[in-house]
Each structure stands twice: as C-alpha cells, then as structure tokens.
Write a structure and sequence with these properties.
Chain A is α+β, with helices and mostly antiparallel strands and 435 residues long. Chain A has helices at 46-56, 93-111, 116-121, 123-133, 144-150, 156-165, 256-262; strands at residues 19-26, 31-36, 65-67, 72-78, 81-87, 134-135, 138-139, 195-208, 214-228, 234-239, 246-250, 264-267, 272-281, 291-299, 305-314, 322-330, 335-342, 346-350, 355-361, 370-377, 389-397, 406-412, 419-434. The longest helix of chain A has 19 residues, at 93-111. The N and C termini of chain A lie far apart (62 Å). Chain B starts with 6 loop residues before the first helix and ends with a helix. Chain B has 669 residues and is mainly alpha-helical. A five-stranded antiparallel β-sheet of chain B has the order 3-7-6-5-4, with helices on both faces. Chain B has a two-stranded antiparallel ribbon with strand order 1-2. The chains are: A alpha+beta (435), B mainly alpha (669). At the A-B interface, strand 2, helix 1, helix 2, strand 7 and strand 9 of A face helix 3, helix 5, helix 6, helix 7 and helix 9 of B. Chain B: Belongs to the adaptor complexes large subunit family.
C-alpha cells in the first residue's frame, strides 16, 4: 500500500497548496537537484532568484521571499546551499521556511553533513526522503525516527548489499509508531542494551566591543537526546539549577504541568534521537565569555599599508580547553593582500571576497596564539573608515557555560536498569568582536 | 547536471526496457525502470516510453510496480484500493489514502463531487491518527474547493481543538489556519478557546506561533484589549525596553533583519537605555552598506524627536566624516527634525556649512536647499551657498533640485534681500528664458508674477509656519487598526500586496502544465508561435470555433477611432494579471501579428499606462480596445467596445487578445 501516495506526481494538474517544487542551488549558481511534487516547473523560474542574488551581493542578504510573475520563491541558505522552494498559492511564509530547514536538518542527520557532495552521492535516498517528507505538497513524515523506519540511512555495508541484491533503502514494513496510543513513540520497542544519552549543547551569541566589554551576550541551549529503551519507559530528568532557564520550549512529550510546578522534565520519550528542550539564558544571569581577543588593526592615512595583530586567549573556562578555534574576518574592500605570520595554525586570505580565515585549533594558555603582520591596501584609495569585525568560532567539551547541570534521571514503568549518560558542550554561536 | 543525458539516454533506456534479457532479470529490469523515473524527475520528456512502462508494470516485483505507477495514469484502477485504503488498519495507509482521494478528484477534473466520499472523509476527521485528521482537512479543502472549502462547524472545531496537542507542528499550524473559519457562538466559548490555545503562542515552532497569533487576533476582533495583550510590542513597547540589546545587530545578519532590528530599537528607547542605543546605532552609521548606514542615520533622526540634543550631537559628528551618503542622510534627517522639533533649529543651522561640497544626490541637495531657504537667517553664509547652486544651475540634472532652489531663494530673499536680489534675478532669468523643463519654467514664471505683486503679497503667500510638531506630515507610520490587517497577518500579502497575489493565483488555470515534457519559457513559446503564424495573409485564430477572422488592414484614423470609441458602450471588461513593467513595443508587435492594430499608446514606464487598439473581422465588425495599467503591480484593465453586438465574436476576440497579451506578460523585464 506504500505506493498509494506516489501517483499524485504523475498527475497533470494545478497546484492547490503549499510547496510545489524545490531546487537546490550551490554557491556557483548550479541547480544540482530539483524535485517537483506536482507538475514540473521550469528551471528558468530560478532566474528570478539569481537576479535577486546578484543584487544582494552577499549570500545572506538574498531576500527570503522573491516574487515572480507566476510563482513566489521562498528560500533559505544553509551550508553553502540555497534551498529554493516554488510556491503558487498563499502560504504562511514561516511555515515554508521552517520546513526547508527541516529538510536540511534531515540531510544532515542522514548523511552526516548537508553538502552538495553528500546530496549527490545519495541522490536516491534524497529523492526517497523528499517523497516521504512532502505528499501532494503537504508535510507528511518529518520526524527523524519515523523517517528512519521508512528509509534506512546509508551505511557502507548496506550500499554494498544493495548494489549486489538490488534492494533499496525503502523499508518493507509500514512504520509501526503511529499505532501506539502515544503518537511520538512506537509500541513494542526492544533493545538488548538499554541506553539513554543526553547532550546539553550551548551556543554563545555575543557582541564584544572594542575595549573588550560585552555589549550583548546570550546563551542558546538545547538538550538533544538519544533514547534506546525497551517498552514504555517513563523518565524524569531534574536539574541542579533549573531556574537558570529562560524561554524553554519543549518536545510535545514533556508534561508541562510537572515542569511548571516542580521544574522537573517528566516524559515518555520518543524512540531514538530527538530534541528534548531548547532554552535561552540571558539578561538576569551574567553570561561568562570564555575567550578574550587582543587586537590592533590600524590603517594609516595616506599610506598603502596597515597593521594587523590579533591574539586570542582563554578566560573563565573553568579549567576546560578551548578548541576548534577559527577566526574569520571580512576585511575592507581596499585591502589587496595580507602578509601575516601565525604562531599557531594556518591562515588564508581570499583577495576576491576579502575574507581572512585563521584556523587556530586548540588554545594552550602557556603560549597564546597570535596572528600578526602587514595589510596591503590599494594605493590611492581612501583609508577604510571602519575596522572589521572578528567572528570567532570555538568549542569547549564537557562544559555548559551557563552552569546548567543535570541532577538525576529516573525511570519508571520498566524494570531493567538502563545505562545513562550526559554530555556537555559549549560552542560559539554568533560570536563577534568589534575592533 | 550529470543526469541529463537527453535523447541518447532515452534511446538507451528504451533499448534496455525492450531487451528480453533485461526483462528476464528482475534486478536489471527494475534498474531500467528506475532510470526512466530518474530522467522524468530531472525534467526530461519520457512520455515516449509510455508503452514500455505499461508493460513493465505487469511484472511481479512490487517495487517495480510502484515505480511504474509514478508514470502512466492509472486512475480507473485506483478507486477501489483507495476506498479500502481509507479503512485500512494501518494509519500510514489511511494517511496516504486520504490525500489520494484529493489527487484522484483532481485527476477526474470537473466531475461531480462524490457525496459519499466527502462524508467518509468528514467521518475520518475523528480518526485516532492525528495526521489522518489533518490530511482529511487538506483533502476536503481541495475536493470542496468550489463550494468554498471544508466547513468548520462547532463539533468539528471543538474536536480539532481537543486534538491539537497530538498534532505535529505542521498539522498544528494548518489546523490553526482552518480554525480561522470558525465563529464562536458566545463570549464564554470564545474565551475557552483562547485559553486552550494560549500555550501555542509559546510553541517552539515559529509557524505555529504565527498561526496562533493570527487566530487570536481574528477571534478576538471584538475585544481590542485581548488583541493588545497578544501584540505587546505594539501596545506596550516599554515591556521590551530592558531587552533592547536583543535587537543589536550582529555582523553576520542579513540586511533586512538589521533594518528591522533598527526599527524596533527606535520603539524601545527610554531614559535608561537611550545612551547605549544611540552608541550602538552610531556604530552602524559607518557600515560599508550604504543602505544600512542611511537606515541607521534615519533611525537616530527619529529618536531625535524625543531625545533631540543627544541625537543632533551625534548627527553633527557624523558630518565630520565627509562621506557623501552619510552627509546626505544626515541633512535629510535634519530637515525632518526641524519641522517637528523647532527647538533644535539653531544647532542644525550651525552644523550645515560645508555640507554643500559633499552632497551629490537629489534628495540630499533638496533637503539642504530647503533648510537654507527656510532658516537662512540663521546660517550666515546661506546666500553664498545658494549662490553656488545658482551658478551651477545650468549643469544641474535634477529638476526637483531647481524647483527647491527657486522656492528657497525667494524665501531667503524675504529675510536677506540685499544679498539675494541679484542672484534671484539671475536664477529667474535662467528658469524663464533658458530652462527646458516645463515645470521648472512654470514655477519660475509663477514666482516672477508673485514678486511683481509686491513683497507684502509674497510674504503672505510664502511665509507659512516653519515648523509644526502637531503636523505629523513627515511621519509615514500611520497606525492601522488591528482588524484592518489581521486577515493578512502571517501571509505573503503584506510583503507584496494582496491584489497582486490574487492575480498571480487567478492566472493559474490558464497556465499550461506539462507534467513530463521539458518546459520551455512559457512566454517565449507564445511569441514564437504567434510570429510564425503571422506571416499568413489572413489569420485564422481559435481553430476550435473558427468564428473569428481578423482582416489584416483596418482603415481608421485616430480621430475616427476617438469618435467611435466615445459613441459606443463597453461590451466587455476584464482584468489581466500583470507583473512588472510594460514594454509597449513588444505588445504592439504581438498584437500586430494577430491583426490588432495600435492607435495610440503611452510611453514605457508612465503611470497610469494606457493604450488603444483597433481590429476588424471579415464581417466588418470593429473591435475597439483600451488597455489601462493603473500602477505597477496592479492588473491590466482591458475594455473592449464592439461596433455590432456579436457575443460569440467578442468572446473569440477576447481570447485572441488575451493570448497575445498573455504571451508578452510572462516575459521577463
């Protein structure tokens, strides 16, 4: 019966609702994948998108909604790919944008990365996924664990087996999950090893001003879970300091009343990977900034050169190592080239886009990484008025920078003893240092 | 694209499908079918493989059957499995079967709506599976489109409200949209519903939040205080003032977000945060993006209406940068400011000298000249600055600047006659004797005549108040009542205008849909076929009816046309969807090809744009047509008058006309 929903694609007809087609476009403007849920819309519709892209100059500035004479294009930009959807009727724009992000998330989840190569390598699975996620232009199955029951993610072994036996990744059985009384959990789950893992992931968004003081800082946190527990477990998760959390949004499985009265997360979990909560920490609680940046960037008046000297150091990181540090800087247009020396890691400067990237790696407090040298400016051009902003990325393992700590996890309803684990990680979100 | 092999790939795959060895090997057979489907998905025309694919459908392999069904139409075989699918035990099957009903209905075209099926779908709204419920709504909406979509009565509304918690985010936001159709019977019911939905305003999914907000705004249309509670930023911006830092722009954000954030920041300013907000905005004023920098300057300008002194200080400081776009935006902000806050006039006037060397654009020059004219008595060198403008008036490209200069100089003449008299004379001479732009010349003559009637009279006419805080003339932010825009909330309408969207969607039924053929640009296709047929002596259009033959030559002068036009009544009026600008030449050519001749036509880009056409059929009946485009984005109004009342011929004519104009309307500008 699985095939029943497929023949809508064979129909000639006029779109009724929602998403009509999807084009995936890479940064050099190639349409490398297209999917039509109704009639085929010509690729030429993307010309309007390219026009808007040209006008916007930077990829981020492409308007999310673009009108064309017969369609509207709603697009997102993720991982160097534009997801451009074609719309023919009135829709809530955020609905479509959210769905496109979900598509990108699903690719990420299935292939480990959402890149052009990954999509091209797995083009069959991509089409199968898109077919399942949207039926007749309406979102159908978008939950990762339900999708994975229908379409198995690629593994090396499976692709070898498939190519020999000619079988596909489409499951032979129907997803069972929908038959249980709890919509997000399938019945009759069985594991030999019962495990429950929680990843507390926090991202710091911050703007640091010239003098090093914080203009704005906020922590966006999520708890992602991977639950492999047999039967119908009923979990409750408590925190040492639940009052830290502002603006919490919950997975539908969480009993909101319990949270309101006791600040405990009580839930029957979905099977597999899912996002338990997302939250914000800000305003009332001072946000600790884990790195500091010493910088000296100057352009001399009437001279064709300037100085560049940046040092990054750790701060308030509670004894944990700051790693995966990358600095990117959009240099002013007048910059022709940069001659720099890095005490650690490598740097690249793209003279076309004027983007300087310094891949620092791990910071050792004994020897702080430094990048220093000369900036060559176009001769005769006026001195740049504004110094560039430094965008910093970093990671700290085993630390939730807000100080959030899981107290305990209890399981009711089942007899076995599960293996439990909590991992903390802090990352830079939009972390920007003004110079 | 590696997958687009074109003709060759098709030949290959046909050979494979017909190869008995392939047919004997299920794996290879399926692989060949898979290739067809892949080609089809890439947009290739695989209709030629129909026969082979039907044969392939007879295989035992279920996966292959499924693949084949992607291609050939199979509706007559679908009905029965579909109906049993609706009653299947597995919810997954029911979900698909429900939407399948809508697809089959569309496939059958204009046939009667099957009442039994509709009842079945309505009863499936009670299904235990939440996605079946939502799919039922989607399917009913589509099947009952002609009757206005699915009906949400009280039991259905309450049922949906109770099921909300089980739905996924997509279902929630769609159900919230369907609930907009429901009108609660009593106040109690209304508030029960609102209480029930309160949680969805805090959903983690933005589309659910937006849909819930819209439902609140629409349901509470008679309770403005409830609407105000939902729209806190609008009703009580102060609530957010302590969160102002949230709206500071981050470097990597897109411009449209940054501009929106700046607008919000202006709303949140209070005594405590004004300093920080202004410091932040000041940083944006030197942004590389001109658009953003000017946006920040006008944001400071609007905060200046409350915190005048600080803002004028910052704006004056910005003038020191001597950047063209910055200076221009600052001077424009100053002009708006002195009108609303006269107390800052002295400070502004002190800052002005020097700006004239930097500003190059029309808007900036106009603002500067206006300031010098209106407040010239406070700027010591005002006459000399204006004199420079007068000297270079011959090379001035913007007529609006010349007009502003005339007004400013006459005004300044009233306060500082000795310094201005001579150059005013020269400017008037230039405007009256040498100026080519008629409006500037007329303005010059007007002031000349006014000055002749004596200085007292000029003063009476020109010396209106120089500022008026009560007149919010320069503020374009008119507060609209919530109910006026609630219906358009969470749609695309506010972005591009409702009227235009309605036109875009109205266009669809005529748009050709090619499910499998390679699509070419629809507009180009239209013109090409027209041109090729145009070479024939007499053009037969509408081969189906054959009722209309337009003759190639019509002898009618413009005067005769006008006379006939005025003497006749409009026999047919239509509005054609129209996007973008008009290309008169293209329209003229396209219509000429079908023997519709142009009498008169406005130039490109003029608004409103008008054109008149004439055509005559072989029986001598004249068709007089007027095209009218009021403004960009509105529809193209077509009015046709006929010399003899022939409804059939008129209908045929309209279809010819629509096709010809429609062909060029799709072209890109």
């Amino acid at each position: 019966m699985l095939w029943l929903h497929l023949y809508g694609n064979a129909l000639k007809g006029v779109a009724e609702k929602m998403i009509h087609s999807l084009f995936l476009i890479n940064c050099s403007g190639d349409i490398f994948l297209e999917k039509h849920w109704k009639s085929v819309v010509s690729q030429s519709v993307c010309d309007y998108f390219f026009e808007a892209q040209e006008k916007a100059i930077d990829v981020e500035n492409v308007p999310p909604v673009i009108p064309t004479p017969h369609h509207y294009l709603i697009s997102i930009y993720r991982d160097k790919i534009f997801f451009v959807s074609v719309i023919q009727t009135e829709v809530p724009p955020l609905f479509v944008i959210e769905f496109l992000h979900r598509v990108a998330d699903t690719f990420q989840d299935y292939f480990g990365e959402c890149s052009e190569t990954a999509i091209k390598d797995n083009v069959v699975i991509v089409y199968e996924l898109l077919e399942e996620m949207l039926d007749n232009g309406f979102p159908l199955a978008t939950e990762s664990n339900i999708l994975k029951e229908l379409i198995k993610p690629p593994t090396i072994l499976r692709s070898v087996v498939n190519s020999i036996t000619g079988s596909s990744n489409v499951g032979d059985t129907l997803p069972t999950g929908q038959l249980s009384n709890i919509p997000w959990r399938r019945a009759g789950v069985k594991y030999t090893n019962n495990e429950a893992y929680f990843d507390v992931i926090e991202e710091i968004d911050a703007i640091i001003d010239k003098s090093g003081s914080t203009v704005f800082a906020e922590i966006q946190g999520v708890i992602d879970s991977c639950i492999k527990l047999s039967g119908m477990p009923d979990l409750s998760l408590s925190f040492m300091n639940p009052r830290l959390l502002d603006d919490v949004s919950f997975h539908p499985c969480i009993r909101f009343k319990r949270w309101e009265s006791e600040r405990v997360l009580s839930f029957i979990p979905p099977d597999g990977n899912f996002r338990l909560i997302s939250y914000r920490v800000s305003s009332q609680n001072l946000v600790a900034i884990p790195v500091y940046v010493k910088h000296l960037i100057s352009f001399k008046e009437n001279s064709s050169s300037g100085r560049f000297d940046v040092t990054i150091g750790p701060k308030q990181n509670m004894g944990k190592t700051v790693e995966g540090v990358v600095m990117t800087v959009h240099m002013p247009k007048a910059v022709l080239n940069m001659n720099l020396t890095a005490t650690q890691g490598g740097y690249t400067f793209d003279p076309v886009t004027k983007v300087l990237t310094w891949d620092v790696g791990k910071i050792t407090p004994q020897k702080l990484p430094n990048l220093k040298g000369i900036v060559n400016l176009q001769s005769g051009a006026p001195k740049p008025e504004e110094n560039p902003s430094l965008n910093i990325q970093f990671k700290i393992q085993q630390l939730a920078i807000s100080g959030l700590k899981v107290n305990r996890l209890d399981m009711y309803g089942e007899k076995y003893k599960p293996f439990k684990g909590v991992k903390y990680i802090t990352k830079a979100g939009k972390f920007q240092v003004r110079t | 694209m590696p997958y687009l092999g074109g003709e060759e790939a098709l030949r290959d795959v046909r050979r494979a499908l017909n190869n008995p060895h392939v047919q004997a090997d299920p794996l290879r057979y399926r692989a060949a079918v898979l290739r067809v489907i892949r080609l089809m998905t890439q947009g290739a025309d695989v209709s030629g493989l129909f026969a082979e694919m039907v044969k392939a459908g007879a295989a035992a392999d279920v996966v292959q059957k499924k693949l084949v069904q992607l291609m050939p139409g199979i509706q007559e075989y679908v009905q029965q499995p579909l109906l049993s699918g609706l009653r299947d035990r597995a919810s997954y099957v029911r979900r698909i079967a429900v939407l399948g009903c809508a697809k089959v209905h569309r496939l059958q075209g204009d046939t009667e709506v099957d009442g039994a099926l509709v009842n079945e779908l309505y009863s499936l709204l009670r299904d235990q599976d939440p996605i079946v419920v939502v799919n039922c709504l989607r399917a009913l909406e589509e099947i009952l489109k002609k009757e206005g979509g699915v009906v949400i009565n009280k039991p259905i509304a309450h049922h949906l409200l109770n099921r909300m918690a089980d739905l996924d985010q997509w279902g929630q936001s769609e159900v919230l949209a369907f609930l907009l159709r429901y009108r609660p019977r009593s106040e109690e019911e209304l508030f029960n519903i609102l209480n029930l939905l309160d949680g969805y305003l805090k959903s983690s999914s933005p589309s659910v939040v937006m849909a819930a907000t819209k439902l609140f705004l629409v349901l509470a249309r008679e309770y403005p205080h409830v609407q105000a509670d939902v729209l806190i930023l609008r009703s009580l911006p102060g609530h957010f003032s302590s969160h102002y830092k949230k709206f500071f722009c981050s470097y990597s954000e897109p411009h449209y977000i940054k501009c929106q954030k700046m607008e919000v920041l202006c709303e949140l300013v209070n005594d405590e945060n004004v300093h920080q907000v202004l410091e932040e905005l000041k940083g944006y004023c030197t942004d590389i993006s001109v658009e953003l920098a000017q946006g920040a300057i006008s944001a400071i300008g609007s905060i200046a209406r409350t915190y005048t002194e600080q803002c004028v200080g910052i704006l004056t400081e910005l003038l020191g940068l001597q950047q063209e776009h910055i200076t221009s935006a600052v001077v424009q902000s100053f002009r708006d400011l002195v009108w609303l806050c006269p107390q800052c006039t002295d400070a502004v006037c002190q800052a002005l000298p020097g700006c004239e060397d930097i500003i190059q654009d029309s808007e900036g020059k106009q603002a500067l000249i206006w300031l010098l004219g209106a407040h010239g008595e406070k700027v010591p060198n005002a006459p000399y600055v204006l004199e420079d403008f007068v000297e270079s008036v011959k090379s001035e490209v913007f007529p609006a600047v010349k007009m502003e200069l005339l007004t400013a100089l006459v005004r300044l003449f009233l306060t500082r006659p000795a310094e201005c008299q001579d150059m005013l004379g020269r400017l008037l001479y230039h405007c009256i004797e040498e100026e080519k732009d008629m409006s500037v010349r007329d303005r010059g003559l007007f002031y000349y005549r006014l000055l002749q009637s004596g200085v007292e009279e000029v003063k009476r006419v020109l010396c209106s108040p120089k500022s008026d805080p009560s007149l919010g003339l320069l503020e374009d932010r008119t507060e609209q009542p919530v109910n006026a825009w609630a219906a358009e909330f969470n749609t695309l309408a506010p972005i591009y205008g409702k009227a235009r969207w309605a036109l875009v969607t109205a266009q669809q039924p005529v748009e050709p849909c090619y499910a499998f053929s390679p699509c070419t640009d629809s507009g180009n296709r239209g013109t090409e076929s027209l041109v090729s047929e145009g070479s024939k002596e007499v053009l037969k259009v509408h081969p189906d009816t054959g009722s209309l033959t337009l003759i190639p030559d019509v002898a009618l002068t413009a005067e005769q046309f006008e006379k006939t036009w005025l003497s006749l009544d409009v026999s047919c009026q239509q509005c054609l969807p129209w996007g973008g600008t008009v290309h008169p030449d293209t329209i003229q050519t396209a219509l000429h090809v079908v023997h519709i001749h142009t009498i008169a036509m406005s130039k490109a880009g003029v608004q409103p744009w008008k054109a008149y056409f004439i055509a005559q059929d072989d029986s001598g009946c004249l068709f007089l047509t007027e095209l009218l485009l009021e403004a960009e984005g509105s529809g193209m109004q077509v009015a046709v008058k006929q010399s003899e009342a022939k409804p059939e011929a008129l209908q045929a004519f309209m279809s010819v006309f629509r096709t010809a104009v429609g062909a060029v309307a799709g072209l890109k500008s």
